Each structure stands twice: as structure tokens, then as C-alpha cells.
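So, can you check?
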Amino acid sequence: MAVTAPDDYGTKKKNNGSSWNPSGRTGGTTSTGDVRVYGKPESVYTPPAQPSGGGSYVAPSAPAATPSYNPYKDILAQQEKMYADMMAREQQQYEAEQRAREEMLAQQKKQAQAAYESRVQNVNTGADEILRQAYISRMQDERTLPQQLRSLGVSGGASETTLQNLKANYANNRQRTESERLSAIDQAAADRDSLHQAAYSDFLQSNISSLRDYNSRYNEIAMMQAQAQAEAAAAEAAARASSTKNTTYSSSDVMKSAGYKYAADLLGAGYSNEQIYTTMKNAGFADAQIAEYLYLMGF
């Protein structure tokens, strides 16, 4: 008895050798005698249609890579701002000290001038009083001297000589008083100028010392900045070298560390990213650690 399969699965070969193909398929089964043998259906691959316009198919380009965050750039920026602020404060302090020195010099010169003017006034007052008294004495002598001479029996040429001597003494006294006046005023001026010179000398010495200190602090800050930048660059290079060996990054492990908790506590206390960096740097944390903590906290 012959075995008959469903029509969809192939061709029945009858005893007379004719083929029966109910489905009209070109592939399928072959039959020998009354036994049907099933073969693998033929399949033909049809490529996808090409884009219209005659051009060849172009695969879509890969999406642009998103630049990775580099916390070390923020570290360097924070360092530059911190050291720039330090230098600005040093400059402001130096300028404030300079203004204070200039004001002190002006005050010292003002005091020296006031002392000079006071001395000159006292000298003039004393000299004027001496001259006034000498003039009064001369006028009294001129009124009383003739009578005194007559009572002594002196007259004529002797009397005239005595009056001439009286006038000469007055002139001499007046000249001596004016000379002493000028000498005292000159001495007062010399003392004033000496005070001015001493004050200006102190001013210059203080300026030189202050400028030397300012330059020393400025250079120290510049060296600190250069060292910090070198450390940050070295930390970045080390981090990159480490990342090439181990690309596995576990942020959860970092966030469980005591250092991250310390940074988070500072953030919770209202510290800025710059203040967090400075505080942790002073506490001995490396730049790479600080950069990692700041990155995980969203800076």
C-alpha cells in the first residue's frame, strides 16, 4: 500500500513514473515507488531594496561620542581662582599698607610744619616784645636824660654825645634782636627739614621692606600654584593610566568611603566646591580623590 502525504508537502511519484504536484512547487520531496521522501524546501534570499536616486546604500554614521567629564579641569580652574584670589588679596594688602605709609608721612610732615610755625610765632613774639621794651626805654631816656644831664651840670657837646650814645645803643640792641630772631627762625626751619627728612627716610625704608615681603609672599603663592598644578596633572595622568588597566568603575564603593562622606558633610554644611577642595586638600586628600568626590556630587 502506498503512503500518501498532504498535498502541501511535496510530490507523489506514481508507479507509472509520472509526477503529481498539487501545490505547484518546484522544490520539495521526491518519491521512489510508493514511498515518499521529503527534501529541504528551496529558499531564495532577496536583498533589501536600494534607496531611490541611483546612489549606493550608505550605512548610518555612529552617533557622536559624548565628551567624558574631566574633573581635573575643574580642579585646575578652582586652583587658578583660589591662587588668583590670594594674589589679589596680597596686592590689596600691599596697596593698603602703602596708603597708610603715605598718610603717615603726610601727617608727620604736617606736624613738623605746625611745630615750625609755632616756634616761629614764639620767636617773633619774643623778639617783638624785646624791641617794644627797648623802644619804650629809649623814649623814656630821651625825655629824662636832658634834665638829668642839666642837674649834673652836663651841657653842650657832652649832652649831645650822651644822646647819640643812647640812640646807638638802641640801634645795636634792635639789630642784635633781629639777628637772634632770624637765627632762631632758621634753626626752626632746619629742625623742621630734619624731621621731614627723617620721616621720608623711614617711609622709604618701610616701602622697601614691605615690597620685599610682598614679592616674597607673591612668589610663594606662585610656587604653591605651580606645585598644585603639577600635582593635579600627575594625578590626572595616574588616573588615566589606571583606567587603561581597569575600566571597571564602582561609584557606589566610592560613595561609601569616609572621604566621600566627609566631602558630602562639607557640602551639607554649605561649603562651595572651591571651599570643599581647599578644606580637603588641607586635610591631606589627594587631588584625584577630591576630583572624584566632586564629580560624584555633581560639580
User: Anything to note?
Assistant: The longest strand covers residues 29-32.
